[in-house]
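Sample intake sheet
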Amino acid sequence: MINGVRKMVFKGISKVFSTENETQYRTIGEFWNKQSTKYGIENLRGLGYNWTDNSIEYVIGLKNGEIEGTNIAVELPDDGWIIATGKLADLSDLYDEIYEQGKLKYEIEQFDEEGNCEISYYR
């Protein structure tokens, strides 16, 4: 609890990715693929935050436990998240729908072996 507000902490490996021409879908996908080989896609989750006009900070971590190489711990709100679900193949379209309602402060992505995705987001 921080200043009377419950907070969750997201720990993982942090990197900054370019968002120019939507390249983040490819480069973050490569980041996921590398970690999925080691941990399995269903054991991971990713956090996007700190957007600028041309970049996003992205953290990948384990759903349970701490991923090897952890270099950051991000405090997040415990409540007030909205969940959207869809297919990984339609991720860009899913984000277009989410962003129609405005900018985000945080997003947490989770995927499974069947190509499903769950996006929890916070404005």
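Comment: The first strand starts at residue 7 and ends at 18. The chain has a mean pLDDT of 94.
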